[in-house]
Amino acid sequence: MRGRRTRIAIAAAIALATSGSLAGCFRSAPEQPVKPLCPIAAPPSQQLGAETAGVRVVETGFTRVGGFGTAKVSMGALIRNDSDKVAYRTLVTFDAVDAAGRSVIHDDHRLFRTQLVPVISPGDTLPVGSASLLDEAAQSRESQIASINVTAHVIQWLDPNPRAEGLAKVTAEVVAGSGKRDDSGKGEITYDFESPSCAPMTSRGVSMVFHSESGDILGGSLASPTSWLTCEPGINSGKREIISQSDIPAGADLDRTSITVYCDFDRAQPSLASGSPYN
Questions:
Q1: What range does the domain containing 120 cover?
Q2: What is the pTM of this model?
Q3: 110 falls within a domain
Q4: Across 108-216, where does the E strand assignment appear?
């Protein structure tokens, strides 16, 4: 019995000595440097009016889609920033008019004509798409769509800063062969996108512009955000967008669809007022 107690005492002494030496090792280890937080840029919160000479609409296209009673106009545009500054929060407004210049957008959809494009980098051209319900006269073809008007108004101009996270270009590309369209014009598209930001950005939706086989713009659509944390940093593969309305023109080559993923600093606060963005 005495031998057993002696062995237990020796084991306890060894354990105490070992723990003491380990604790000494931990105390003597050098402190790890604290990593800096992700330097997300903080643009001015005040919404200031700005000159729009640096941003222009370089190409547009449209197609009448859907059937009687639910007919819409699918519209697409390419917006270019010719300036040497970042166009932050650009309001893009779509309208479809007849030969007399009268809008043929249904009154209930006129509040959904304007969308917000968070960032257009210097020298970049972004695809922007939209689709709107036609009014009664256009539904019955008493009035025809003659053309579309697309305007762009920049809320803020910011100096480019390579260290300001959140202002860099987000790129997106359709996965070849992933596009689907049914006879009604509804469908889906799968795409990959890459965000160079070091932290998640909030989403204001995904804008799509549909092209023909020859590359002409046929129309477009905006998928409103379903989550405000969808712009994850790095490469995001296999994102699937469902087009639940009849927005896809019959002649669209879906492999040619151009996409803009709208990534912003804060959560969207839609305002259903004339001229305000709905995304």
A1: 55-264
A2: 0.82
A3: yes
A4: 114-120, 125-133, 147-158, 171-174, 180-181, 187-195, 202-211
